[in-house]
Design brief:
Lyase, Ornithine Decarboxylase, Chain A, domain 1; TIM Barrel; binds pyridoxal-5'-phosphate; diaminopimelate decarboxylase activity; alpha/beta; Orn/DAP/Arg_de-COase; eight-stranded parallel barrel; nine-stranded mixed sheet; 26% strand
Length: 412
Amino acid sequence: MIENIVQTYRMKQEKPLCAYIYDLSKLRSHVEALLTTLPENCQLFYAIKANSDETLLKTLAPHVSGFEVASLGEIEKVRSVDQHIPILFGGPGKTYEEIDMAIHHGVTLLHVESFHELNVVNHIAKQREVSVSILLRVNLRRSVPNAKLKMAGVPTQFGIDEKEIPKAISLVNPMPNINLCGFHFHAMSNNIDAMSHAYFVDHCFALSRAWENEFNLDISYMNVGGGIGINYLDIHDQFNWEEFMLVLHKIIEKNKDKNWQILFECGRYITSSCGYYATEVLDIKQNHEQYFCVLRGGSHHLRLPAAWKQNHPFTVVPVEKWSYSFERPELVNTNITVAGELCTPNDVLARDVNITRLRVGDILLFSYAGAYGWSISHHDFLSHPHPDRFYLDQNLQENELLIIKEIRNSFQ
Ligand SMILES: *Cc1c(COP(=O)(O)O)cnc(C)c1O
């Protein structure tokens, strides 16, 4: 259906198409499906750094338990969408002003990432004469195998070393303005293995239980972070959510003597699949025995495949429109490398991919582009125009022009 919309839209336009397209209906139903399968004492937050687009935040706000943020800018984005929705505030480098403003904006939990930060939070809480609820962010000694980016198990700048947690607890205990509510364990990114994710949650339970018992704490929350991944290399073999839920229910059953709320703060897994990046083939050529197509767009809009040096999944949307009398460049059943319009050989979105047919003027529709796409890209390198931004919503479905709701002005 999205292919048809893109095609129809392109037929009516003069300029080459280049757009991010967000399917809000798909986003809603995806989140609802996650929420209905999560055990009762679990809460799903959205980590907005994956994509902080205002329309997506507005769409998600009525469904998720709240938002996870890592800067004052993100807190302000959330507050401009919803004055009261719960916020979890983490991040390794919080300034005095950020912590102070986070408290002012009423964040629900502050994730403390170091001893020094603990002292700063305590200092501000005393000045303000308030009690601040915190989780200690743990930098685990063990890592989760096969995750793409590891924040734990290897030395990183995040959180407090697992070994130092007892010391942090003894530092917190005498602080009257700090309320230690539990532990935070975001430890990886893009894990696509459900069993290892369940194993990780089990491990978080074991540590939290041990600390609670040993130090006689009264924990309310265990935050197991985000990190559930997308398989970009084989889109038909995704993280097995059903399997994860099956095992998660068992793990929670095993720990039901603890009356904790389990927090998930997923980014990629929530918004990746609702986003598409559609852009037009400007040129096709052969250099050094290899075929290339060049797009109106590239890594300045979708940096993820270049950053991770992997292919991004796409389909070809054929466009019949051809306005010239001269020959339309075309390739049939060939391997091509998909390059962007930037003047750097790093501007590649996929290499050596087989296509059955591709012509100049056809559109490549990249899927799973809703997370870490636009938000992590260097938009103004080379000063090409930014992509348009479209939102699809079944509620608007009267005719195709209505389905495509173009919100150009809010796009910066
Ligand atoms: C980035 C981040 C997330 C979200 O990560 P995903 O891999 O997108 O799920 C959650 N928590 C913290 C602390 C993060 O830094």
